[in-house]
Request: fold
Amino acid sequence: MADLTQTWDVLIAGGGNAGLCAAIAARRAGASVLVLEAAPKFYRGGNTRHTRNMRCAHDAATATLTGPYGEDEFWDDLRRVTEGETDESLARFTIAESKEILGWIGRQGVRFQPSLGGTLGLDRTNAFFLGGGRAMLNALYRTALGLGVAVEYEAEVADLEIDGGKFRAAHVRRGDQRARVQAKAFVAAAGGFEADIDWLARHWGEAARNFLVRGSPYNRGTLLKALLERGAEPVGDPTQCHAVAIDARAPRFDGGIVTRLDCVPFGIVVDREGRRFHDEGEDLWPRRYAVWGRLVAAQPGQIAYCILDAKARELYMPSLYPAIEAPDLRTLALELSLDPGALARTVDEFNAAARPGKFDRDALDGCRTEGLAPRKSHWARRIDQAPFLAYPLRPGITFTYLGARVDRQARVARKDGGAFANMFAAGEIMAGNVLGRGYAAGVGMTIGAVFGRVAGTEAARAARA
Amino acid sequence: MPPAPDLPSATDALAQARAEARRLMTVCNACRYCEGRCAVFPAMEARRQFADGELDYLAQLCHACGACLGDCQFAPPHEFKVDVPRALAELRWESYRAHAWPRALAPMFARNGLKVAVAAALGAAGFLAGFALFDEPAALVSRHGGPGAFYRLMPHNAMLALFGAAFLYAVLAMALGVRSFQRAIPQLDGAGGARPLWQAARDAASLRYLGGGGEGCGDAEGRVADRRRLYHHFAFYGFLLCFAATCVATVNHYALGRLAPYPWYDLPVVLGTLGGVGLLVGPAGLLAEKWRRDPELQDPARFGMETAFLLMLFAVSLTGLALLVLRYTAAMPLLLALHLGFVFALFLTAPYGKFVHGLYRFAALVRYAREHHGAAAPETEG
Reply:
């Protein structure tokens, strides 16, 4: 067990991608480093456990990435998904650093593979971790521990002592124990607050009680709250989170990737009254899946049902829970506790409006409805072949946008101007600086690794000062 | 022999093992993070439903290297309880039982270690008694020398008939078992011929998929911690060299009329010695790795079977090498009886123990090479 009474050079709260990159960088710079991870050992690393790739700019193909992905193209992608909700200077810095971070991460023992089967168009832009995010974490932990970084599990930073604009100590909760840990520099890398349902409910109301959390139950935002209360300047929309529609049968927390559903474009989605509420075929699914979390969240009871027929069965990625099946729509409606008459009306109207066309799963095929509101723009085929299938949908929260503002040295900005000299932030707790809205696959990991490494290096420097 | 009372009946256990494997493959097929690790996951991705025979096939592709367990965000204590190496080990073993020929001998797989040990003891005792009965009992403790010395204890034709019968029986029983396994996998159209065989031979010869996509065997935290591949190579190639030595000696005997024992520099002895060393180093190393393995990756239910197989290989080699060194001393008859007894038991128990893993694995690799698993999968979020 690490000595919590000594004064550490660098104290890091959070043992995910960002925290470990910071720990390794600080340790390599000669600092003594303690990482406090709130989760037990198996669940260490927050949402890094559930990730699988990292978006990196590169000028030429690598062993695992096809083709070049230039800084400007990366910036265009980021500007598009965030709709301008990004700090351009920090975003461009992240992108520039992303070129080197892939090699750096590789040197810390993380291994990569070509893009996974079944992922759209990421083979050029995103480097996939061999074995996924937990394998990546395991490699970082091995390296960090080998370098002499100390790690404490089930130890959560609950509050911060700040004096004269400088971090002095962290108040740590470990089970029933309380400890005051002193350090010369501090790195906040403890994730967002998506697992704190009460916090979400402050913005979303009681609807938040029906949200599922896709990742770690340990991202409760305890440290983020402490930072903001102790004078850090916030960044990002506090009311927003990234949410997708996932299988409603998923566990409350930590269901991860296997509970996602890709079937929406190939069927219709109805609310609990049996009515459609949005165009299921607006665009290719990878560009639309993130919209559906918020759409379902806005429906009564935060529940919806995707209705498909036998033709659709093999068109989408398999998921954890089997489809609810019935020989006819009436039985299906009863299985889902929907009004059979209402569902039948919706399906009849949809079938009558679906125009014939050449169906193509992988392209905007123009198979659409006419005279139906809301319309379905693509992949609109009649739902008429038994057996009929259904998946229940609920909003699944991936991460939150609210964070602490930082500068290029990853220093935490003060609400009253300037920055804390020896406090740094990395990862989801500051990702809102760069990703203030929307999402592009693998960007969170890029931000975490880039700012983690910077924060660790700068924290080690601050500790020497 | 009825199943041991403390074990579930074979069919229940098989159904349970398949049910768990099916559950896990459903989870894994929705995740796919481990697809770069080995052949199991790409083979899984080519399917959406998993028939019994297909699960048996996936199980045979797994080397239990443990990489995917360390990678898995859904491993125990997560509520999804995904432990693929354990579930597939369970199913491998159950499918050896299920496909055993003749079916009546399937219970041999239960408490396999004990049964193999008994077979080895009986084999050795049988040869000792045989020498004593058919020769002068004094011949057992006297010195023998010169060409044909072994056959004064047991005529060559008797040896050939006995071992030829045991060997042919083992080959037949294992071939029928593997055939039953292959027939349970839904058939493929086309893609036959020599290419998949050649690919599978290369994959098997290099143990391509033992080692988590190039990283080596790990433990539950992903530490690269053991050398199973290296020791397996020692054991496997040692076995092949010993087999080659036997073949060359047979040619010497019948085609060239040269009788054993041969001088140390002669080809059968050189091959047998090298192979024998491999069969000492390999099994010993694999046993050591078994003890050192991360407890999460150990398989107590199969411990007896695997240990018995490794010890048998070790004992065959040790007695063989001892026979080589001491063949001109009075210890030769005793060592010859021990060696022949162990080899005989190895042959007879081969179809009902760990030996079959290589054949099932090879059949699975051939199948894997035959499958077209490059077809585009549906696409999803990043």
